[in-house]
Write a structure and sequence with these properties.
32% of the residues lie in helices and 12% in strands. It is an alpha+beta fold and 312 residues long. The longest helix has 16 residues.
Length: 312
């Protein structure tokens, strides 16, 4: 996510784009949806459909799912077009599943704060206290705190190759990836500055798995997604009904399905949330709440939104 000069970065900055513009996936003729009572007089349908058509035409996008959240409820939800240009009958619905990439991090942040509330970890203790196997090629890594990972100030370098074309689906994929960091050096001293790091969030995944005695994906499904009323979502791609898979596309003027789907368990925490517009609406409702939610107290919600790092 691009951030302009002197903007502030909080624990859930990856979700701000979603809260403002929502699920921005794929295009055209309305397929399914609803309009809440609040839509009367606002003209949401006409405005959003016009915007969707413009985005689709300018970017060769075959379809999209859109929702608007206002005053604690979903006031607009609509789907457009198809999820695969080679399958014109596969129209997008409210259950269609998309790869949500770094929106994954917002849920991981919620999971970490949930465990902090339960006393399972402290945001300001070194992450090695919770996952002693973690190591890097210089001793500075021993000072990295959980909070520094959440705010992208850990110094852990970003992922160089996600391996989407050769996905790993076994349970050892994530801890094995974390072990490869042993040959890396920090980009800067922990807490010294801001630098986006998917690898650091992958490290949080093994921490959550360790302290809860479950695989990362199982923990997130049972303890995070289900309480948030996101039953159609998962960090484990193979369990999603194949009829709900929406294909990624590329091409500026003529959309073409990509050769492979962006999924591997090696980077599940940072990048592999699979979800639909209905479920993500629930996520945004929880994140925008100023009160306690099913997972977190009012103070933890406020902590997620508290500006932490000035990004130049």
């Amino acid at each position: 996510m691009a951030i302009g000069p002197k903007k502030l970065f909080s624990l859930i900055a990856p979700v701000i784009v979603v809260a403002a513009g929502f699920v921005y996936f794929f295009y055209w003729k309305p397929c399914s949806g609803y309009f809440a009572d609040q839509d009367k007089g606002w003209g949401w349908g006409e405005k959003v459909e016009s915007f969707a058509n413009k985005v689709a035409m300018n970017n060769a996008i075959p379809g999209m799912a859109v929702a608007i959240v206002k005053d604690g409820e979903v006031i607009y939800s609509q789907t457009y077009g198809v999820g695969n240009v080679l399958r014109p009958n596969q129209v997008i619905t409210s259950s269609s599943n998309f790869h949500l990439a770094s929106i994954s991090k917002a849920l991981v942040a919620m999971a970490v704060l949930k465990n902090a509330e339960a006393g399972n970890l402290s945001l300001d203790k070194p992450v090695v206290e919770y996952y002693p196997e973690f190591s890097m090629a210089d001793d500075r890594y021993k000072a990295i705190t959980v909070r520094q990972i959440l705010t992208h100030t850990s110094g852990i370098p970003d992922v160089e190759d996600y391996g989407w074309e050769n996905p790993l689906v076994d349970s050892a994929a994530l801890p094995e990836y974390i072990s490869t960091l042993a040959s890396k050096k920090l980009d800067f001293n922990p807490g010294e500055k801001w630098e986006y790091s998917n690898a650091a969030y992958d490290l949080l995944g093994v921490v959550l798995s360790r302290i809860n005695g479950k695989s990362f994906e199982q923990y997130m499904k049972e303890d995070i997604l289900m309480p948030l009323r996101m039953p159609g979502s998962s960090f484990y791609f193979p369990e999603i009904d194949s009829s709900l898979h929406m294909k990624g596309h590329t091409g500026k003027f003529n959309a073409v399905p990509v050769a492979y789907y962006p999924y591997t368990r090696a980077h599940a925490p940072s990048s592999t949330l699979q979800s639909n517009v209905s479920d993500v609406s629930q996520l945004v409702l929880n994140l925008l709440s100023i009160e306690a939610v099913p997972l977190l107290s009012k103070s933890s919600i406020a902590e997620m939104w508290r500006p932490t790092v000035k990004v130049h």
